[in-house]
Amino acid sequence: MSAPPRRQLAAELLDGARSLQARYLHDLEELVSIDSGSYTPHGVNRVADWVQSRLTGIGFAVERVTFPPGRQGFQAGDALVARKKGALAESDGGQRILLAGHMDTVFEEGTAAARPFALTGSIANGPGVSDDKGGLLAGLTALELLHDHGVDTYDELVLLATPDEEIGSPASRELIEETARGMHYGLGLECARENGDLVIARKGVADFRLTVSGRAAHAGIEPERGANAALTAAHLVVQIQALNGHWDDVTVNVGVVRAGTRANIVCPEAELRIEVRAATTADVRRVTRAIQEIADHPAVPGTTVEVEQLDLCPPMEDTPASRRMLDNARRAASAVGVPLGAAATGGVGDANLIAGMGVPILDGLGPVGGADHSPQEWLDVSSVPHRIALLADLVASLGDARNTA
């Protein structure tokens, strides 16, 4: 079925979203009442059951992915990959769009009972109300609206719901990257910034371990026979911290330093843990080279430094392709009567992993919320209808390449 003209569709979607507001609030209370912390897999799976049921009801084929136990016996909840084919083949301009949200929160089991969902005026509170149950529910509701309005001018819609975003997606990273492969666009369902901005860029994060090897000796009798790894580590801390300010939008932090076992032994080994955050992959590489250069020239003779990159979450970069998506989002926002800005943030999420696969993506497409990860977490429910309509209209626009040419 062909979609109605853009302005007409936007008005219809906004009317539809308004009519669903009471149901959205009921659903949000139900989801927030489920403890689904990253380390509470049975709670995450209850959320997955709920989301899966709703998706199958609008014609999505849902794959449920169960992960094997990870490090130290960690068991993540299940992930959902839901797919729905549209009526417009890729050869005719149909596009594949990935919507991504997460089902886990940062809160311990029992938080939902201790601090239940509450609605005061237009402000909802509760664990995960903004991050990310409000956003995930908005994405689901937007898909339901498109289904109800017969909008199928796309090649494929995919909704990915993950169980471990709040701890860096250790179980689901491979699934996220594989699901993103070949997508034309990504839409992140984290909630909007407190001022309503979308997120157009997120810094990437690289974690390093530096191991300093020295030589032990009796500190009182023959210290000259030793090579003090702790002293080399101290120089490394100063030199690496001094990298801050060399590049815009780059931060370098030596967060952990360990050295030695006894005061009367010249320290034979030390370890540093370093986090680098940067807005571009090029800057991550520059800082990596700079750290290696410092490590190659230890301050204390007889010591050596090994550099190991432990992890890399790629940046979600502000690119011309994402700017074109933002133009579409602003047109969708204008059509439903809301202003729309775009922000960059140092926080990371699943959108980084999608961007790392070369997929242009916008994040923060959920309702307006804030104070994430705290007892004060909130969601402005008055923003819900407009944000759902905006998201649905954006999906409809991006789904047909003829709209974005």
UniProtKB/TrEMBL annotation:
* Pfam families (alphabetical): M20_dimer (PF07687), Peptidase_M20 (PF01546)
| Top-level division of the source organism's lineage | Bacteria
Name the UniProt key words of this record, in alphabetical order.
Answer: Hydrolase, Metal-binding, Zinc
- Keyword Methyltransferase in the entry? The reply is no
Q: Which residues form the active site?
A: D104, E165 (proton acceptor)
> Would the keyword Hydrolase turn up in this protein's UniProt record?
yes
Can you provide one Gene Ontology molecular function annotated for this UniProt record? hydrolase activity
**What positions does the domain Peptidase M20 dimerisation occupy?**
200-301
Q: Which cofactor does it need?
A: Zn(2+)
Instruction: Quote the protein name from its UniProt record.
Output: Peptidase M20 dimerisation domain-containing protein
